[in-house]
Every structure is written in structure tokens, then in C-alpha cells.
Amino acid sequence: MIQMECKKTALEGVLILTPRVFCDERGWFMESYSAGSLSEFGIDCAFVQDNHIASMKKGVLRGIHFQNYPYAQAKLVRCTRGKVRDYAIDLRKNSPSYKQFIYAELSAENKKQLFLPQGFGHAVISLTDYSEIEYRVDNLYAPQYDRTISYLDSELGIPWGIEPIIVSEKDRNAPQLRDSDCNY
Fold first, then answer.
1. Distance CA 112, CA 172 (A)
2. 28 has which bridge partners?
3. pLDDT per residue over 85-95, tens digit each?
4. Peptide bond before 164: cis, by omega within 30 degrees of 0?
5. How far is CA 101 from CA 64, 141, 156, in A?
6. What is the three-class DSSP state of 43?
7. What is the model's pTM?
């Protein structure tokens, strides 16, 4: 029995998953991951690594991150504390939605998850002081294939909706998409 509902987004392959939550006087229970349920939605990734990120302040932005082929990564992202806006940016040059993006508000409260297939850039911005996200990937971290696109890329025109934005030096110095070696 599927314990999640799946909502398609405007970007082919990017899905918002909402787990079924069972509550009683003790608290709640949910399946945060089920290969069987995901397979029913066409997600047949063999996830090989879990990552966990904490952001201390509202406005912390991480991204736009991805790994080039042959180490591209699909991601299944959820927020376990606070609230974030999680972005999927289509970097596939032959896609009808190339350079388009969507975002989903993920929170510890709503328990929603965002699935990004390979070929997408990923960014997340914290909407609260102290937030945490956890995400699964289907390819191991490969530093030589790790890439970043500028969060201020004018061709993408992503409105982050929060000021000030706090970014790492790596993200602050990232190239524009047109200057990157993105190989999707």
C-alpha cells in the first residue's frame, strides 16, 4: 500500500511527495522512504548516500549545486527542522524546460519531500533561523565533478524572496550558467 501522495510539477520528472502521517496520543509515524512507493511513482533510483545539512540563520542559501555526468545525482530532499524553500533548476540543454525552475516549501511540519532527477541543479534557502534538511542521492559525492552555478545568474532570474542572503565563498564566486562546463 502506498503511504505517500505524489504531485507532478511543471518540470518533467520533478515531484513533490507528501507522506501519509498517522497520529495518535503518542505522536506520529510516517514512512519517509519506501523504495516500493517511489517505484509506483516512476522513481527507481538506487540511493547510495544520505546527506544532512543545518543552516543557523534565516536567509542561508546553498546552491545552485549539481554534479556533472557521469556522477550526476538524483536527490530526494526533506526538511527535518524549521522551514526551507527547495529549488529544482532544469540544466538539461535539450529539455523543453531548460533554465526553468520550480520550488517547494518544505518544513518539519508539512513533511513534504522534493524529488529531483539527474540533470537538475539544486538550491535551498532557509526560511527560519535554524533549519535542517536531509537528502538522499543516487551517486556518491565526486569532488572532481562537483559544480556550482551563481545564485544571481540573470538568465535564470530566480527570485529568492529573502534579504539578506547568506552564502558561502564557493557560492558567491560561482560562474554563470553560460560560463560553466555543465554537461547535461
1. 29
2. 23
3. 999 999 999 99
4. yes
5. 11, 23, 8
6. coil
7. 0.95
Which cell numbers hold the place of 153? 545568474
Cβ(32)–Cβ(78) under 8 Å?
yes
Determine the Cα–Cα distance for residues 112 and 105; give it in Å rounded to an integer: 8
Between CA 69 and CA 145 the distance in angstroms is 7
Q: Which residues does the annotation mark as catalytic?
A: 65, 135
Q: Are residues 3 and 16 in contact, defined by beta-carbon separation less than 8 angstroms?
A: no
Could you tell me if 64 and 121 are in contact, meaning their C-beta atoms sit under 8 angstroms apart?
yes
CB atoms within 10 A of CB 122: 22
Query: Kind of pairing, strands 101-107 and 83-90?
Result: antiparallel
Residue found by looking up cell 543545518 in the block = 54
The per-residue pLDDT for 1 is: 64
Q: Tell me, what DSSP letter sits at residue 175?
A: P
Largest CA distance in the chain: 55
Instruction: Using DSSP, state whether 39 is helix, strand or coil.
Output: helix
